[in-house]
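dude i think i finally got it to work??
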Amino acid sequence: MPAASIRSTMRSRRRAMAEINVVPYIDVMLVLLVIFMVTAPLVTPSVINLPSVGNAALAQPAPPITLNIHANGQLSISYQNGGKMREDTLSKAELENFLQKQQALAPDQPVVIAADKNIQYQTVISVMSDLKTWGIKRVGLYVQASK
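look at this
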């Protein structure tokens, strides 16, 4: 019988030893908290001298040029000219010429592709590739929100 009681006391000691004592970790965290609270007011914020803008006018972004790809594959563009919206049907050569002139005037003007939903995806990719070849940097796609 004494051997059985020794085994039971050893089992209880093993169980007790398996528990992690978190009190030392809490003590360390409280000491770190006190250190940070004492040193935080001593840190001086750095001063940065920034240039002033003055009375500079904000540049208005150019409205995007919309490149429409119709169901029959025809290309047309919609753009603002003198505050009025215009829409022109162009061939690829005319489109390239027009877009390069517009990019020379406003290099950051975006071109947004609005393709008919029945157009093959390859046609849209081909037009996007042409735009990249022509040096157009900002190209986007119009999408219609689902209802």
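The beta strands are 65-69, 75-81, 84-90, 111-115, 139-141.
im so relieved honestly
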